[in-house]
Design goal:
This protein is mainly alpha-helical. The protein has one domain. The chain is 66% helix and 9% strand. The longest helix is centred in the first third of the chain and has 28 residues. The N and C termini lie far apart (50 Å).
Length: 114
């Protein structure tokens, strides 16, 4: 995006010159909204595949936790995921540490019991 004093040029599929400030703001907001929706979709997909990610880290819980923290960004966008904990438990239960698995299984049971 290139701005000038009286005109704004938006680089998208083609160059669009906009002389009206309100129209420029409307176009800018529409582009940001599209990006936010695609970002939210990507985050939701990532959260649904936490078990796959755990396997890809060679079952490294520390690396897994860092990935999960980044994906929690869904909440900062005003969105929620009703199955976040279910997917989180599914990922954690793939860890190779038996004591850790017992701990997570207990947390999962506590969650399911309310």
């Amino acid at each position: 995006m290139v701005t000038s004093r009286n005109k704004f040029k938006l680089q998208w599929l083609h160059t669009l010159e906009v002389a009206n400030d309100l129209l420029y703001l409307r176009i800018l907001i529409s582009r940001i909204t599209i990006d936010s929706r695609s970002t939210i979709s990507y985050i939701r997909k990532s959260l649904s595949e936490l078990n796959d990610y755990m396997a890809s880290t060679d079952y490294n819980v520390t690396t897994f936790n860092g990935f999960v923290r980044l994906r929690i960004a869904l909440n900062t966008r005003g969105e929620t995921s009703s199955n976040f904990l279910i997917n989180l438990f599914k990922g954690y239960l793939l860890a190779l540490d038996k004591e850790f698995n017992m701990y997570i299984e207990q947390k999962k049971n506590d969650y399911e019991e309310g």
